Amino acid sequence: MMARKSKPKVAVWKFASCDGCQLSLLDCEDDLLAVSQEIEIAHFPEASRAVMKGPYDLSLVEGSITTPHDAERIHEIRKSSKFLITIGACATAGGIQALRNFKDVNDFISIVYATPDYIDTLQKSTPISDHIKVDFELRGCPIDKMQLLEVISAFINGRKPNTPAHSTCIECKRRGTVCVMVAQGKMCMGPVTHAGCGALCPSYDRGCYGCFGPQETTNTGSLSTQLKKLGADDDEIVRTFRGFNAYAEPFRKESELHDKENH
Amino acid sequence: MTKKTIKVDYLARVEGEGGLYIKMKDDAVVDVKLKIFEPPRFFEGLLRGRDFQEAPDITARICGICPVAYQMSAVHAMENALGVKVEGPLRDLRRLLYCGEWIESHTLHIYMLHAPDFLGYPDAIKMAKDHKEIVERGLKLKKAGNQIVSLLGGREIHPINVRVGGFYKVFSKKDFEPLIETLKWARDAALETVRWTAQLPFPEFEQDYEFVALHHPEEYPFNEGRIVSSEGLDIDCSDYEQHFQEEHVEHSNALHSVLKKRGAYFVGPMARYSLNFDQLSPMVREAALEAGLGRECRNPFKSIVIRSIEVLYACDEALRILESYEKPERPFVSVEPREATGFSCTEAPRGILYHHYRLDGQGKILDAKIVPPTSQNQKTIENDLWKFVPQHIHLAQEELTWQCEQAIRNYDPCISCATHFLKLDIERT
Fold it and tell me: What is the domain range of residue A227?
């Protein structure tokens, strides 16, 4: 364990996102004041107007890269950060806004804005790791706040975070939820989705929709076969894989196999 | 001739990315720009081709602070399109979920984002060094709201239990029992919050706004009502676009929304309160009057008191719902897709949130239009600053800049939402 004289300086950064993942830190109502005893919150604009200059010991990065300015800014943040963790599906996979990556972004701009010339945006929404070296990725849309506390605690204590990489399916079995796909014929992404939420959706009688992105080794083809048996057509399979982690490689490739528009 | 600017490159304690730029010449304000550089995410575009049942989960991702609002406007717009009405206990459960979000979102703003301005701290954590019990009360009250959303919605941020027609799963009365004790404590804490915020120092700043909010004859508005204003507007949600329009301005990635031929208007807690005072429960009306509020309030700095009043109401209403709750027979009403158009407005914590969808015969979304509360308030925020700065021009730069930030935080602006939607520069020339 590293010897520590002063509290580590922590910075929170935002790119294209909904703010939900950084809000998870403020949602740690029972632990927030305790955590603030252990770390120096040096840069966290959503919570404080006081800003300390870098370098920072730990940077938490939320959001995806979608503008030329942000593509430059992330390099500056990397340079001023000893350890950098991405939090949430936007930062680790491009987020729901990566649905644009499958279309021409100019079509989207003209749908939303009357004067598209004012808008400065990139063709694709990309994860942080496409631009810089990332030291750890925390999954979820949104992240789980207990996992966030675990990651911060692991960093402070100089150990590896305990965030299991198995599937949501395993989490369901562990909590004893009856399989919604087998027993109720509901479509479920649980077999290919990374653990972390505690298999929430099946415990609320609905199939998993893949908030935590692909698990480490997935068999997406086998899931598609099963979804077809349950009556899904190609369009539905495309939509199933194109959710909040649409641009994560295993999900992207599987959706492309079923996307008739691109074949 | 003296020139001066006030610049805040990155506004703090708001949700999302924005700044402020104010330019002054001989102590007169010549330009105010609320800049929104939050990157656009094109939700209306990416909803095209998705199934109607996906809209509540996708639109929730517009905002991590008020996902319930997006889910509620989405499901009501879809139900409006598909000719379904959700009533009885399912309707009550939706009100309960909204109570949870109002408590959580308002309390976050009152204690962590707004109060530090009044007491001169950069944030709530520094404020806790001198006011530990107050900050702890705030955190616990916020948690009470989150407990409602977590139980009924599955989790605090981006709940998973909301669907067109109702819920995926509903709970028995017994499952809700632990919440009742929590909410009784929360109602007391909310009353203390009203009394605490009422004695904060407020600048004199009464403004002549046109307030716009939902209005329902029998209840304080969450999910249902007509859109009314303090200038006599009284319309059905489906007529929204005939009366309001969005303008695209160069300094903002958010669209400015205006009332046709009238201009800026005001949405959010102060508008809701002023247009719906009689719909508050008796104990809440009494607390408001005791706190020195009238039947309406036109000083945006006092919005912190109004938010506290709404937290008190949400705790009281949640308890009323839970005490009379009986588990519905089915968690949702069946919904069949058809070619249709639907509209809805619900009261997000920050004000009315409008959704409009057009569906094809299979229930696929052909078009979507979403107008969040902060883009509706953007022009009003700029108008406030045009008036506020000349009144406080004698202040030192740092003090004036901070007070301008506070004037913006009066609105609890949610920039993540408004990007479809802050950076603060004050320039004195």
Answer: 168-262
